[in-house]
Structures are given as structure tokens and as C-alpha cells.
Amino acid sequence: MMTEKQQQYYKDMFGRERGVYVVNDGHLVSVVTFFIGDDDERYLTHHVPWTVVDDDPDGSTLYIDQMLTYKGRATHKFIHSEFSNLLVQLKKKFKNIVKVKWVRVGSQFRKHGKIEGVTNGRRIHSKDIKF
User: Considering the entire predicted model, what is its pTM?
Assistant: First the structure.
């Protein structure tokens, strides 16, 4: 069950065309939200979860904000293989994108506190896109 804040977040993000549904065999397996900006860490380090970010559609970096997935082995393989296809589709829509960044809060952080490579409790991942 989602909170009212989360429901409003998804309504706003999809209204701004910053959300994507991923479907496999007619079943929803993932919901991805994102925003676009320049290659500036402030987009990640100062961002509050479930908050819509004012982005720059002409920016060079696509930030994955939320990626919710159905937890199943077949889904994991499907999402992993489809993620690259999703990035290609987003690149077609937002021509200036050259990099993807996202944050993950892993079990290591939750169990053991601050670890190397974590900023404000979040691990920052980055990937240059080759098209």
C-alpha cells in the first residue's frame, strides 16, 4: 500500500512524462521514474525520496529516481536484459543523454551504517551510455 505522498509522486512524475511501466507477458514487472539534469552530484545528494525534482530536459544525465520491481527470478533476468532497451528508448526521446546515475540503499548500509562510496546514506551508481 502506498502512502498519499507516494501516490502524488507517481501521479506527478507520470504527468511530467518521467515514468515508465515495464511489462512482461502482460504483467507489470517494474515501474521506473527518472529526471534529467547536468552531471551534478547535487541531484543525488540533496534529493529527498518521493519528491519531484525540477529537471532540465536538455541535460546530459538521466537520473533513475525510483525503480520498483516485482521480486522474482524470472523478473530479475527480464529487467536486467530490458534495462538497456529502456535506456535506448529514453535516449531517443532525450537526445542529449550520455550518462545514467541512480542511487541504491543496500543491505550493507542498513546493517552496518556508513560505508565507503555512500553519500547521505545512499550508494551512487553511474554508467556511461554507449550508443
Answer: 0.76
Burial class (CB in 10 A: 0-12, 13-18, 19+), 20: middle
* Cell triple for 102: 541512480
Going by C-beta distance under 8 Å and a sequence separation of 6 or more, which residues neighbour residue 75?
A: 24, 29, 30, 69
Which domains are present in the chain?
4-128 (3.40.630)
What pLDDT digit, counting tens, does each position of 16-58 carry?
999 998 888 888 888 999 999 987 767 766 567 788 888 899 9
**Cα three-residue angle 6-80-73, rounded to 5 degrees:** 85
The helix (H) or strand (E) run that includes residue 122 is strand 122-128
